[in-house]
Each structure stands twice: as structure tokens, then as C-alpha cells.
Amino acid sequence: MTSAPGQLLRLQDLDSSIDALEHKREHLPERAAVAEVSQELVALRHLAAERTSELRQLDERRSKIEAELAAADERRRTVAGRLYAAQTTSARDLAAMQAETETLASKVSGLEDEILGLLEAADAASGALVDLEASVEPAERSLSATRAELARAEEVIDGELLALREEREAAAGDVPAVLLGRYEALRGRLGGVAVARVVARRCSGCHLTLSSMELERVRRAGDELETCEQCSRILVVEPPGQASSPQ
Ligand SMILES: [Zn+2]
């Protein structure tokens, strides 16, 4: 029959192993990789959406200018037609019509240049969009591959956790409820470590060196719980030759 401190030490070792595995699971490199690839993908999609919106705006702008161009061109033709047919018009009217034709011609040419510029901008945006879309698919593949790696790594740890939790449950079942309550309260208060081994006369929880008298008291504790006067952890001296692996 194991002593009360021995039972609690067993429980502590299991809980520490479970805590360490949970920490490992939370900080798997695969998890960071998934986050990184996800971010890349989000950034790519964001850029692609920006280019798409830019293309739409360029297109709208071009339609507007094309309509303006068509109107100016039509007006120019009308005026040019009248100018051509106007033998009877006064010299002043002719000069005015000539001036308008010239203004319209220059406007048409300006609008044509603008349309050309918009087409070039649309070409550039469209090329950029194609490149971005080409990068999205590999990034998506990479994300699902990385997610699968994460799931595999989690599965391994979950298997280990399951076994440890079963073992922990069995170990806790042997501990009286009052003792268990005290253990849990200490664990909650002391960063998960309620029971500390005494190693080379020192409390492994806070490294306080025990006096010979204190050490002797812990050694002869039996079912009593002796605690570290500095960190309040329950102290356990393992019998020689029975030292199990430290946490
Ligand atoms: Zn201590």
C-alpha cells in the first residue's frame, strides 16, 4: 500500500505528463505552419479581390469614356457634314464651325488616348490577377497538406493523452477525496505542481534547501503531508532505489 504522499506523487507525475502533452499539442510546429499558410492564402485572396475590383472600376471608367467619345465623334461628324454642305453660310459661321470641329477632334483624340491608357492598366491588372490566381491553388493544396500533417500529429498526442488520462483516473480513484481536494487546490494555486520531490536535500518545486531536521521529518512522514515552508508544496522523499523518472 502506497503512502498518501506517494499516491499524490504518482498523481502529480501523471498530471505533469498530461500538462506537458497538452502544451506540446497546443504548440505543435504543424499548427504554426497551418496558421502561416492560411495567412498567405488570405493575403493572396485579398490581393486577387483588389485586382478584380480594380479591373471592374477600369472597365466602368472605360465604358463611360467610350460613351463620351461616341457622342463627341458623332457631333464632330455632324459639324463636319454641315461645314462641307454649307456654301450659303456666312464666313463667321464657317469659322465657328471650323473651330468646333477642331476642338472636337482634339477632344476625340484625348478620349482615345485615355481609353488606351485604361486598356493598358486593365491589361496589367489582369496579368497580375492571373498570377495571383495561379498562386492560390498551390497555396490551397499546401494548406490542406499542412492541415493533414497537423491532424496526424494531434492524433498521436491524443492517443498518448487518452492512455495517460485513463491511468490518471485510476490513480485518482485510490486517493481519499479530502486528500485529492487539497492536491487539486494546491495544483491550481502553484502552476500545476502540488507535489515536489526532495532531490539532494532541496525542494524541487522552489529549490529551497531543507535542514536535516526537515528532511528527516519528510522522510518519516508516513501518511502525513509535509509541505515546503517556502512554496507550500507537498514534499516527498522517494525511498532509495525507487527513484522514478522526474517530471
Ligand atoms: Zn519548495
Structure write-up:
It is a single chain. The chain is mainly alpha-helical and 247 residues long. It folds into two domains: 25-173, Helix Hairpins (Orthogonal Bundle), CATH 1.10.287; 176-236, no CATH class. It has five helices and three strands, in the order ααααββαβ. A three-stranded mixed β-sheet has the order 2-1-3. A hairpin with a 2-residue loop joins strand 1 (195-199) and strand 2. Helix 1 packs antiparallel against helix 3 and helix 2 packs antiparallel against helix 3 (91-173). It is rod-shaped and about 130 Å long. The chain binds zinc ion (ZN). Zinc ion (ZN) binds at residues 196, 203, 205-206, 208, 228, 230-231, 233.
Output the keywords:
5 helices, 3-stranded mixed beta sheet, 247 residues, single chain, 74% helix, binds zinc ion, mainly alpha, Helix Hairpins
Write the layout of secondary structure elements.
Layout (H helix, E strand, L loop, with lengths): L3 H23 L2 H57 L5 H83 L3 H13 L5 E5 L2 E2 L8 H8 L14 E3 L11
Parallel strand pairs: 1-3
Antiparallel strand pairs: 1-2
Helix pairs in contact: 1-3, 2-3
The structure holds zinc ion.
